[in-house]
DNA sequence: TATGAATGAGCGTTCATTCAT
DNA sequence: TATGAATGAACGCTCATTCAT
């Protein structure tokens, strides 16, 4: 895990059934998608779907878990690469968030959108994962403030602003558009640096 | 309209049925909410609901239209108050967005969340309203850049970042929390100023 | 309740929907009957069925409760009529059981057949009602033995034999057959008297 | 066949798959048991089940046929042992029925419970077997009445009472209880003798 | 023999909506 | 205005069964 290439999004690790489900859930939402629609999208019969997953809910849970886990592992790898330099920590963290939301647009969109559709246990797990992500950024902001590198009054408020900003990418990014994930990530890193008073 | 007090959120103009509907849609989503649930939440019988609205869809449409219209009128009023000062234009615009997303938390949340649940015609209308909002901010950013007041490379990208940042408020703001809408708005104005290179 | 006419089976107190359900459940069993079949038998659409009952299970529960309650109230009335004469107590009790299983053939059949199809709570209630019935007879047998009127070694074993004997009526009785409920009941009373050593 | 030891229930002739099926059918009924449940109970995969039996229905049919055949052969052997003594004929017949319903509790329970779950052809066969059993007892009762040994008015009614009485054993008998099959059978023989006016 | 993977049909239930009153 | 009663269509899911391997 330590040697993970967190900037590499070439192979999509999702099994094909889940990839179809992601597309369909993004288009119509969890409650707006029927199991028949999911099955058709995956080229399966309805019972075929249930052979692979115990329930509709199990499908969205698998998606959420994979999404949160993927982002978390990339974030840790980025953090490790940054070493002790807090400015670099912030830069790589935002770069990681932005790349993830651009490259894994649909997955990231679901992860932030369908939290409320989960049943209690899975919801608690996903919320914990989301909070874990948030605290990673808050810690960076606080460290930078402590060291005098950042001008940050309320770290948790700013963290939320930064995170929603990046989340937004998954709402409008299109591979057909003029911007590449890399250039977007660079821009967002600069945004973040301005927000903490650098630059 | 020109003399509207865009900072005043005292009276909630929503009729009680719609207010109940907003709460329920926020909790479970449009497709996750049944008409029975809506009727029960509003203290009505099912046919009673249909006396007031032609369909479930008509309810979410009314909500979306009211939300977009309220924000739009406040935005115009803020813009008028700012006059020709582009820094003030940006400040009041962001203040207006932030106040709206804090004071009209649930309404704003629905407006950004349930776009995909609308039928084509209503969806087109809401998307147009969303874009209109976005262009208002883009124009401000471009004007500031033209005048040399702002350091903005890609105005539309930054506008989206600013807007999603503010949208985020509606996801985590709570009246029970330590922050008032006013102080949040002030903070977000400062964020915006930093993002355009002021401060 | 004390003045109930326990020999009178003229009016069937079941609402029409339940009467249809009884017939269908008798023919195919609870698990062998679909809600669509029930609805069709009752001349309703499927949601129409669910307007009156919360679930398929609620229907069988209503039937079981009505059956057990009806038999119990008749049994108490018969017991009251018998006064302190233990021979009469036995006679009227068996007469009551036999009349019930002949006149309420299908209802009685379900009550003894579908116990295992009930969910735990309802099952416990029905089992308690069945046991209550059984203990009423056991007490009569024990009283008769104590007073030297009956020659009974194992009262609870004999009670079960008597009860299953009567239960059997609901399996073969037909109003088209040559025997009337009244004559059957008389015969079964004589069976019971022989079994306790009278006659 | 004539030298069969009809009192011996030591070895259960059922193949293991059928024995598991009997247990499951008794617990949940034929329609309440899925083929998946059957396969799991037998430690087989679903296609493994279908290797041994052509269908779910074929399983219950095999069970019913074995049950009816076993009881029939024992009844004939008991009858042969009794010779021409009609009192002994009745005694051994009832002993045979009681022993069977206690020793083959579950099998006997299914035979009387799941008749309605069979498809027409198999159902007709099982009903014929049941009637054949019944006529054997009716004939004994009539013979006893003709010879003046029994005081029986309606032989077929009494036969049904006796048979359901014995059938009841399979509903409440437990090997963990205080009574042995043998003592139960003795008691039921005495019941029968009383019912025909002996003793 | 044995099983992973699949399916058409049907399950119990709920959906948004309507209508007679 | 208001509602008890109803419905066609669809929901999530499971049924008994099959087939390629």
From TrEMBL, chains A, B, C, D:
Domain HTH tetR-type: 11-71
This protein's record includes keyword DNA-binding: yes
Signal peptide start-end: none
Lineage: Bacteria, Bacillati, Actinomycetota, Actinomycetes, Micrococcales
GO molecular function: DNA-binding transcription factor activity; transcription cis-regulatory region binding
PANTHER family: HTH-TYPE TRANSCRIPTIONAL REGULATOR RUTR, TRANSCRIPTIONAL REPRESSOR MCE3R
PROSITE patterns assigned to the protein according to its UniProt record, in alphabetical order: HTH_TETR_1 (PS01081), HTH_TETR_2 (PS50977)
The name this protein goes by in its record: HTH tetR-type domain-containing protein
Organism expressing this protein natively: Arthrobacter alpinus
Keyword annotations from UniProtKB, A to Z: DNA-binding
DNA-binding in keyword set: yes
The entry's DNA-binding region: 34-53
Source organism, top-level taxon: Bacteria
Pfam families named among the record's database cross-references: TetR_C_24, TetR_N
């Amino acid at each position: 895990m330590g040697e993970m290439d967190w900037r590499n999004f070439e192979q999509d690790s999702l099994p094909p059934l889940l990839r179809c489900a992601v597309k369909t859930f993004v288009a119509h939402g969890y409650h707006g998608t029927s199991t028949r629609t999911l099955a058709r999208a995956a080229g399966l019969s309805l019972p075929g779907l249930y052979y692979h997953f115990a329930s509709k809910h199990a499908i969205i849970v698998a998606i959420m878990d994979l999404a949160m886990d993927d982002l978390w592992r990339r974030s840790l790898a980025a953090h490790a690469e940054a070493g002790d330099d807090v400015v670099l920590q912030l830069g790589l963290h935002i770069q990681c968030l932005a790349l993830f939301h651009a490259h894994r647009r649909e997955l990231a969109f679901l992860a932030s959108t369908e939290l409320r559709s989960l049943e209690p246990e899975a919801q608690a797990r996903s919320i914990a994962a989301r909070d874990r992500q948030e605290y990673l950024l808050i810690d960076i902001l606080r460290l930078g403030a402590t060291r005098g590198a950042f001008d940050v009054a309320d770290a948790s408020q700013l963290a939320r602003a930064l995170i929603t900003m990046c989340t937004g990418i998954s709402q409008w990014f299109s591979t057909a558009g003029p911007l590449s994930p890399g250039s977007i990530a660079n821009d967002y890193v600069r945004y973040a640096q301005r927000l903490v008073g650098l630059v």
